[in-house]
Design brief:
This protein is α+β, with helices and mostly antiparallel strands. The protein folds into two domains: about 35-215, no CATH class; about 225-380, Archaeosine Trna-guanine Transglycosylase, Chain: A, domain 4, CATH 2.30.130. It is about 50% helix and about 10% strand. The protein has helices at about 10-20, 20-30, 35-75, 75-80, 90-110, 115-120, 125-130, 140-145, 155-175, 185-200, 200-210, 210-215, 230-240, 285-290, 295-310, 365-370; strands at about 225-230, 245, 255-260, 265, 270, 275-280, 320-325, 340, 345, 360. It has a five-stranded mixed β-sheet with strand order 9-4-3-1-10. Strands 2-7-6 form a three-stranded antiparallel β-sheet. A two-stranded antiparallel sheet has the order 5-8. β3 (about 255-260) and β4 form a beta hairpin. α10 (about 185-200) packs antiparallel against α11 (about 200-210). The longest helix is centred in the first third of the chain and has 40 residues, at about 35-75. The model has no long low-confidence stretch (mean pLDDT about 90). This is Abi-like protein.
């Protein structure tokens, strides 16, 4: 209201405090709206904080599982000394132990905290535990560390690869970077899935202990929340199975919906993305393992793999790993599935004029009211 003073810190002052380069990505996403940019930055902090809780929970679960196996392998109780003092760690790993040990010794002398083996273990960073699973540690994996992840595939690179990606996501969270260039859906699913490799109960507890989906849905900037993917095969697969499958590791922005560009049109059915899995091993043995896991999402994924290896074989499957999007079924509007009035035709033709040959981002708002793809150009 006119004449009412705002208690908010002026945006220019906020930019001076945080720096313009830090706020520029948020301002760009908000299309220059300073109030929206402020709200987006504040939301980004809440989202990062909530995601960091799950990362921290995973870190505790993983380090305890690894520590337990190393205690047994190096017969710590019989020898009476911790496994990390037995001289087998590499220089970088040993340095991590030494730095924490020295810090704790100083705090102990100050009367702040008593130095114990468990405090030294708890003080190791995420990278330390990942370093125990790299290729040069294959022998250690074969001898004992595979037992720390009894519900995985038994492959060292599966666990190390997941932890490596989670560590990078953790760094982005810790540095308060914009999350719009990350696919939060993918990253959170990876965190929970990795916990499940240690224990299904850990995964269940972590999923129940977070509000990340609620916070994610509150993002004030949703200008480009639909990814439009190209490919006749993708549309044909979706009509048979409510999934989108592409090469492993393919990058997508953080979006809520996926639309199909096929036969010079964006198809009217625009499913909502329910969950995403990356680096999915595409083998019959892995499929049966997923089906028998007792997890509903895993079962659906396993059934998709079995279908693709049999009935779906003519769609050109053949890679070892894939990235998979679970989508809502046609007509399931209760779960957020969106149907346009009709297929949305592409307004131009000729060589190289396709709306997208890979993927493109648009807003749900403009997609709903568009008559042709020309009405979507404002989003790109």
């Amino acid at each position: 209201m006119a004449g009412v003073e705002s208690n908010e810190v002026p945006f220019d002052d906020l930019a001076e405090l945080l720096s313009w380069p830090r706020l520029e990505p948020f301002l760009a996403e908000a299309e220059g709206d300073e109030q929206k940019a402020r709200e987006y930055y504040e939301w980004n902090g809440r989202m990062a904080s909530e995601a960091m809780v799950s990362v921290a929970q995973l870190e505790v679960v993983v380090r305890n599982a690894i520590d337990a196996q190393l205690q047994l392998h190096f017969k710590e109780k019989e020898r009476g000394i911790p496994w990390f003092t037995m001289g087998w760690l590499n220089e970088r790993q040993q340095n991590g132990i030494d730095v924490v040990s020295q810090r704790l010794a100083k705090e102990e002398s100050d009367g702040t905290l008593r130095k114990t083996r468990d405090q030294i273990i708890a003080g190791q960073n995420f990278g330390f535990w990942e370093s125990l699973l790299v290729a040069s540690e294959q022998n250690l994996w074969d001898q004992c560390l595979h037992k720390a992840f009894p519900y995985g595939l038994g492959k060292r690179n599966q666990i190390q690869g997941s932890l490596n990606k989670i560590r990078k996501f953790r760094n982005k969270l810790a540095h308060h970077d914009s999350l719009r260039q990350s696919n939060v859906l993918t990253e959170m699913e990876r965190i929970f899935e990795t916990a499940g490799f240690v224990s299904p109960l850990a995964e269940k507890w972590m999923r129940q202990a977070t509000r990340w989906e609620e916070i994610h849905s509150e993002c004030p900037v949703k200008t480009k929340d639909v990814v439009v993917v190209a490919g006749n095969v993708a549309w044909e697969v979706y009509k048979e199975q409510p999934f989108y499958v592409c090469q492993a590791g393919r990058h997508f922005r953080d979006v809520e919906y996926l639309a199909f560009y096929e036969n010079s049109s964006i198809r009217k059915e625009v499913p909502k993305i329910e969950w995403i899995r990356d680096d999915v091993e595409w083998t019959e043995s892995h499929a049966h393992q997923l089906v028998d896991s007792g997890n509903r999402a895993d079962k659906k994924l396993g059934e998709l793999i079995l279908w693709s290896l049999n009935e779906g074989a003519h769609y050109g499957w053949g890679y070892e790993k894939y990235k998979v999007f679970k989508l809502t079924r046609v007509g399931n509007h209760y779960s957020g599935h969106m149907s346009l009035r009709d297929d949305l035709p592409h307004a131009t033709s000729g060589r190289g004029s396709a709306f997208t040959q890979r993927q493109r981002y648009v807003s749900k708002r403009s997609l709903v009211v568009a008559k042709t793809t020309l009405d979507l150009t404002e989003d790109n």
